[in-house]
Amino acid sequence: MGFAAIDYAIVIVYLIGVTVAGIIISGRQRSSRDYFLGGKEMAWWSVGFSIVASETSTLTFISIPGLAFKGNMFFLQLAVGYFVGRLLVSFIFIPAYYAGDLETAYDFLGKRFGTWLRKFTSSVFIVTRVLASGVRLFATAIPVHLITGLDYPTSILIIGLFTLLYTYLGGLKAVVAMDVVQLFIYLGGAVASMLLILHHLPGGWSDVVRFATANGQNKFAMVNLDWGAGVWEFLSAPYTLLGGLLGGTFLTMASHGTDQLLVQRLLGCRSKAESQRALILDASFIVIQFAFFLVLGLCLYAFYNGVTFQQLGLNTSDEVFPKFIIENLPTGIAGLVVAGVLASAMGTLSSSISSLASSTFLDLFKNTARGRNLDPHKEIVWSRLFTLLWGIVLIGGAMLFTDTRNPVVELGLKIASFTYGGLLGTFFLGLLFPRTDQRDATIGFMCGLLAMTLVLTMTTIDFTWHTLIGCAVTIGVGNLSHAIRPAGRAAS
After folding, report:
1. Concatenated DSSP letters for 302-362?
2. To 10 degrees, what angle do helices 408-432 and 75-99 make?
3. How far out from the chain centre does Cα 78 lie?
4. Are 176 and 269 in contact (CB under 8 A)?
5. Distance (Å, rounded) from C-alpha 88 to C-alpha 418?
6. CATH topology for the 5-406 domain
7. In the predicted model, is pLDDT for residue 440 greater than 90?
8. CA separation for the pair 191, 179 (Å, rounded)
9. What span, in angstroms and rounded, lies between the C-alpha atoms of 426 and 475?
10. CA 361 to chain centre
11. To 5 degrees, how large is the angle CA 433–CA 420–CA 477?
12. Residue boundaries of the structural domains of the chain
């Protein structure tokens, strides 16, 4: 049916409306604490929904339906692990964060091990977040390019500039408030798409079931009990039950317990209990959301009569949902769904910009001679400068990703899991092993990163195992470092 003038109007109104509303809602910031932590007075439910929106980028919106379209619902095993991981973060990490008046995730490591390790881990986070966020922002340009005909750089620029504007002026309060709005916009667009598909199918839901179980297949399968022919084959297989549960659990403990992108929100709640409530809300919502997007993929499979994405003339399964939007959504609904695509992207991008700026200012700059004695007004000035800097870097970085052949959700998770294991292991050394010091933690973290370099370059082990491997190596080496140290030697 194409993208009509009214669809473009809906998207333009959405972009302008979100930007203006975010700036107005944020109010006035008086210090970096207000700018980066919302004054530590944000409602738990808004933080919970904001976390969902932050982690639900276009990778979820277009890639998860594509995974079910070309395969089955094995990805849901990972989502169950996500749920377990969030519960563990609620009861292990959050109490530790609220035991001290922390400003960032890496502030904990600074107080536990020393300023040097705080700066080092924060720097590693910054590098990883830039790469992962570049993939996520580029992923958004795929459906926008396919639907509107705009080229990739223009699509990235439009999304990036509007997001940067309200993030720059409004700080974390604007980010969280708009995340909540954007969550329900993109879910509304996806629900509208599913309802239209079911309405189009002669048999409705029964047609979805028929195609998903045709020719002896079962695309509703959620549990993969295949152990493969050996250990290496098992570790290399994507979405096995054990790999999904353990991988999802450890990946989530790393992302929600050590990644400033999400920890920043948890630190903005009024109390430990409200922070825990926010994360449990997120844990419950995220499993339902993943299940919904996977079912949407099965509905698309039925809509296209059970053919492969290659038979549809597409390069990747990520393009199936955008193809449906272009060709089948009626005028007005298409604009709503594209606004949903933009909403999922802007929620994640604004979170990335804010977390990078907060980590740079609070972990690195504020501990220098120039940043140590700033008055509140200058804190705001510097905070906004770092926000502007990282916004420009992410927009520019997204334009470097040009490979659309692989599902972007898997690429994004692989980038994140490279450092997540080492970071998680370092936090565990601080939380669970009181005798380890900065020297042990640093050696453990470096070995965790080295182990992941070897895993990524010399093996075919699936990304679901990466965080667990990096974490285990970091904890093991950190404790070994402590054990072999000569008795009575002073801690570094």
Report:
1. HHTTT--TTTTT-SSGGGHHHHHHHHHSPTTHHHHHHHHHHHHHHHHHHHHHHHHHHIIII
2. 40
3. 14
4. no
5. 21
6. Sodium/glucose cotransporter (1.20.1730)
7. yes
8. 18
9. 7
10. 22
11. 40
12. 5-406
Q: What is the mean pLDDT of the chain?
A: 85
pLDDT at residue number 22 = 80
Among 110, 134, 112, 135, residue whose Cα is nearest residue 123:
110
CB neighbour list of residue 279: distance below 8 Å, 6 or more residues apart: 48, 51, 86, 89, 90, 94, 256, 266
119, HSE (Cβ side, Cα atoms, 13 Å) = 8
pLDDT (tens digit per residue) in 79-108: 999 999 999 999 999 998 888 778 888 999
pLDDT at site 283 = 93
DSSP state of 43: -
- Fill in the amino acid letter for 227: W
Q: Measuring CA to CA, which residue among 78, 314, 290 is closest to residue 190?
A: 290
Closest listed residue to residue 491, CA positions, set 443, 442, 436, 447: 436
How far apart, in Å, are the Cα atoms of 310 and each of 2, 218, 261, 316, 320? 22, 20, 36, 8, 10
Please give the Cα distance from 83 to 401 (Å, whole number).
31
Q: What is the pLDDT of residue 262?
A: 86
Q: Which of 170, 187, 172, 190 is nearest to 47 (CA)?
A: 172
Q: Are 293 and 60 in contact (CB under 8 A)?
A: yes
Q: pTM (2 decimals)?
A: 0.83
